[in-house]
Amino acid sequence: MLTWEDDVLPMIDATRNYRDAALIAIAWDAGPRSGELRSLTLGDITDYTHGYQITVQGKTGQRTIGLVPSVPFLQRWLNDHPGNNGDDPLWSKLSEAVEPSYQTLLATVKDAAERAGVDKPVTFTNFRKSSASYLASEGMNQAHLEDHHGWKRGSDIASRYVSVFAADTNREVARIHGVETEDVDESTPTAPVECPRFHQRTPREKDQCVHCQQVLSKEAAMEQR
């Protein structure tokens, strides 16, 4: 499975433009089906409490997915996007609001993976599976996972993802009740942070705001001196 810190972020850093960075980030963050991802338009992007959300047309109908770690990357691409019409494809060519081919988009992802040294499968399907695995491992229940990924109620697929991590849930319940359990490494937060100067969301993993280059920590400021 593709993880945010070890695979997705290095791929994003290896991209050549803001579109490709946003594409990779959203593929993992939202986990949409390939067709859902590729058919997104500018009008499918709306604001919500934590940044942006996308509305996709899937097998189970229309659903809206809130974005979190991908927000800064999407914002930079929206600022550079050549279109200004709600019907324009989100994943357009860099200089005109025309949709590139599926092969072109997939090639950009594979190119980023190669330059980042990621040797795992980087199909859009694997991004979707990786997204579901991450959410299940963090304790998302089956109903929420079904809503997020567009599976019908009682989905065998969602059930399998949840059951894989059932041992982690049982361990946590035992710990709450006072049973001594093996220590489990806490997951690394993926949500962006707000730049204190620009007041926009920026990746927490970066020392500087991706929008205005404001240094975000005392440690980073000391290194620049």
UniProtKB/TrEMBL annotation:
Positions of the Tyr recombinase domain: 1-175
Organism: Haloarchaeobius litoreus
Taxonomic lineage of the native organism: Archaea, Methanobacteriati, Methanobacteriota, Stenosarchaea group, Halobacteria
Domain of life: Archaea
GO biological process, any: DNA recombination
Alphabetical list of Pfam families matching this protein: Phage_integrase
Secretion signal, residue range per the UniProt entry: none
Protein name, as recorded: Tyrosine-type recombinase/integrase
Protein's UniProt keywords contain Amino-acid biosynthesis: no
CDD domains: DNA_BRE_C
Keywords per UniProt: DNA recombination
Coiled-coil stretches: none
PROSITE patterns cross-referenced by the UniProt entry: TYR_RECOMBINASE
